[in-house]
């Protein structure tokens, strides 16, 4: 019974409220509605700029396009760190980038799918495809130079999408991949850190996840897709993140065949601090994008 409960908690994320919009950060924006090929309606924002440079920005699970609001977490509290992804969006805009940011299925204001089950990228990659197709079909956006800033589940989904639909993403100029993750490694470390009493139940939880999601934790990883990606990628990881291990992101870097870099965020920080990092220290992110999106 407890394994089934924990399995559901691992793959059926609670929706978090969108507590701020780009307007709260002094940014003009447009509300965007678009649809994935399987009919799922997705909600997003477009923050325009005066240049021909555009960034697709994706969020982690269980975030939304605002970020992660700490209130209302209940007993299974993930973090006390409020993550404001829109601070990073503001830094991108300040550097001359337009931003296309959206809610994945089962998150924010987008439609539910798969009975609310999340695949940490495995089920979500069609949403990234839909975002790119929207951009390519929109007269205002279709001629822009496009890069990506992608986070955790949103990084997994984008990396899988780029590998599965190479022609669609062939013109992506640069990618900043913040804390992509293999979910089996993540869950083992998460249980150890947050629920150590249940760490011995990993295998039984995984078996329940297979029943709920159709795949196990080990399949919810972008690892096997990474060698197919041609865009330059900078991986970013909090080195002391207790919910994973450095070897995981290192393995992504090692498998990357395009131009690449691995940037470690140092210090006594937790995983969610990594999602806030470029909101106050954008230089590394902007430098990587500027290198390829001149």
Overall description:
With 294 residues, the chain is an alpha/beta fold. It has a single domain, classed as Rossmann fold (3-Layer(aba) Sandwich). It has nine helices and ten strands. It has helices at residues 2-11, 85-94, 125-137, 153-164, 183-194, 202-213, 246-255, 271-280, 283-292, and strands spanning 30-35, 41-47, 53-58, 67-68, 83-84, 98-102, 145-151, 175-178, 233-238, 260-265. An eight-stranded mixed beta sheet has the order 1-2-6-3-7-8-9-10, with helices on both faces. A two-stranded antiparallel ribbon has the order 4-5. β9 (233-238), α7 and β10 form a beta-alpha-beta unit. α2 packs parallel to α8 (271-280) and α3 (125-137) crosses α4 (153-164). It is globular, with a radius of gyration of 18 Å. It starts with a helix and ends with a helix. The mean pLDDT is 96.
Keywords:
294 residues, alpha/beta, Rossmann fold, eight-stranded mixed beta sheet, two-stranded antiparallel ribbon, 10 strands, 17% strand
Brief overview, please?
With 294 residues, the protein is α/β, with parallel strands linked by helices. The chain has helices at residues 2-11, 85-94, 125-137, 153-164, 183-194, 202-213, 246-255, 271-280, 283-292, and strands spanning 30-35, 41-47, 53-58, 67-68, 83-84, 98-102, 145-151, 175-178, 233-238, 260-265.
List the helices and strands and how they pair.
Elements: H1 2-11, E1 30-35, E2 41-47, E3 53-58, E4 67-68, E5 83-84, H2 85-94, E6 98-102, H3 125-137, E7 145-151, H4 153-164, E8 175-178, H5 183-194, H6 202-213, E9 233-238, H7 246-255, E10 260-265, H8 271-280, H9 283-292
Parallel strand pairs: 3-6, 3-7, 7-8, 8-9, 9-10
Antiparallel strand pairs: 1-2, 2-6, 4-5
Helix pairs in contact: 1-6, 2-8, 3-4
């Amino acid at each position: 019974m407890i394994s089934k409960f924990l399995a559901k908690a691992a793959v059926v994320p609670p929706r978090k409220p969108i507590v701020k919009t780009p307007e709260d950060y002094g940014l003009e924006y447009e509300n965007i509605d678009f649809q994935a090929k399987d009919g799922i309606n997705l909600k997003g924002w477009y923050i325009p700029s005066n240049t021909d440079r555009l960034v697709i920005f994706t969020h982690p699970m269980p975030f939304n396009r605002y970020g992660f609001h700490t209130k209302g977490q209940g007993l299974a509290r993930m973090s006390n760190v409020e993550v404001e992804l829109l601070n990073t969006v503001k830094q991108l805009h300040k550097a001359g980038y337009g931003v296309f940011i959206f809610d994945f299925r089962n998150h924010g204001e987008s439609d539910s799918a798969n009975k609310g089950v999340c695949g940490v990228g495995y089920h979500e990659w069609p949403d990234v495809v839909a975002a790119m197709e929207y951009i390519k079909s929109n007269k205002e956006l279709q001629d822009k130079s496009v890069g990506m800033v992608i986070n955790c589940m949103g990084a997994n989904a984008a990396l899988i999408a780029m590998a599965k639909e190479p022609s669609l993403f062939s013109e992506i100029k640069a990618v900043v991949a913040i804390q992509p993750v293999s979910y089996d490694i993540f869950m083992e470390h998460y249980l150890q850190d947050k629920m150590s009493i249940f760490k011995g139940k990993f295998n039984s939880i995984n078996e329940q996840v297979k029943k709920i999601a159709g795949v196990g934790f080990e399949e919810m990883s972008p690892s096997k897709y990474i060698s197919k990606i041609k865009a330059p990628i900078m991986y970013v990881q909090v080195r002391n993140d207790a919910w994973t291990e450095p070897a995981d992101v290192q393995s992504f870097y090692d498998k990357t065949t395009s131009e690449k870099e691995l940037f470690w965020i140092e210090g006594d920080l937790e995983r969610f601090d990594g999602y806030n990092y470029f909101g106050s220290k954008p230089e590394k992110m902007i430098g990587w994008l500027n290198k390829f999106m001149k």
